[in-house]
Amino acid sequence: MSFAEYLRQNGSDVLEALKIHVQLSSLSILIAVLIAIPTGIILTRHDRAAKAVLAVAGIIQTIPGLVMLGMGLMLFGLGSKPAVIVLVAYAILPIIQNTYTGIKEIDILYIEAARGIGMSQSQILFKVEIPLGLPAIVAGIRLSVVYIISWATLAALIGAGGLGDLIWTGLSSYDTNMILAGAIPASILSIIAGLVIDLIHRAVTPKPMRIKGDA
């Protein structure tokens, strides 16, 4: 059977797997963003804590995905819950790091100027630090999104479903069409997500000022 014929016969199953994969990845990224960005901001005010938190997050990143999923399975059982917990743990580090770095590397002159015109600390955060650090934050989110879409294929091993179901079932049954039906949409999804976030990154990145008379 050709791959095109396989898709004609099983297109609805592939679309359902894609839907689950998108939901699993989106939920994991959303939770990671809600945790990581505030944490990264808080860490910019506490350098000692930042070193410890980033070190722990870095250690988590070095643990193989299958090991983390196995731990999630033992602690939380089968299904999407352990998969989301593991994916969130993996997604957090790049966002925390980029949030922390993006804000810490802002030129102190901007902060001093904001204080000089009477801005409060919260005003400085929301009107100066976050806007200037946003390109770095978005870059961290992009990295996490691409990683999570790929790592979510492993979640099928603990019953979370998604495109990984097709890949792992295809591998176990030596069904090339099934493997491709899972791998190709996952790759395309990752590429599209990366391109969309690249556009967002360009939109939030400050443009250099043009001086009249410059070539």
From TrEMBL:
Residue ranges of every copy of the ABC transmembrane type-1 domain listed in the record: 18-201
Family matches, as Pfam families: BPD_transp_1
Family according to the record: Belongs to the binding-protein-dependent transport system permease family.
Domain of life: Bacteria
Organism: Ruminiclostridium cellobioparum subsp. termitidis CT1112
Lineage of origin: Bacteria, Bacillati, Bacillota, Clostridia, Eubacteriales
UniProt xrefs under InterPro entries: ABC_transp_perm/SBD (IPR051204), MetI-like (IPR000515), MetI-like_sf (IPR035906)
Presence of keyword Metal-binding: no
Keyword tags: Membrane, Transmembrane, Transmembrane helix, Transport
GO annotation, cellular component aspect: plasma membrane
UniProt xrefs under PROSITE patterns: ABC_TM1 (PS50928)
Entry's localization field: Cell membrane; Membrane
GO BP terms: glycine betaine transport; transmembrane transport
Keyword Membrane recorded: yes
Chief location category: membrane
SUPFAM superfamilies: MetI-like
UniProt protein name: ABC-type proline/glycine betaine transporter, permease
Membrane topology classification: Multi-pass membrane protein
Transmembrane segments: 20-43, 52-76, 82-100, 132-158, 178-200
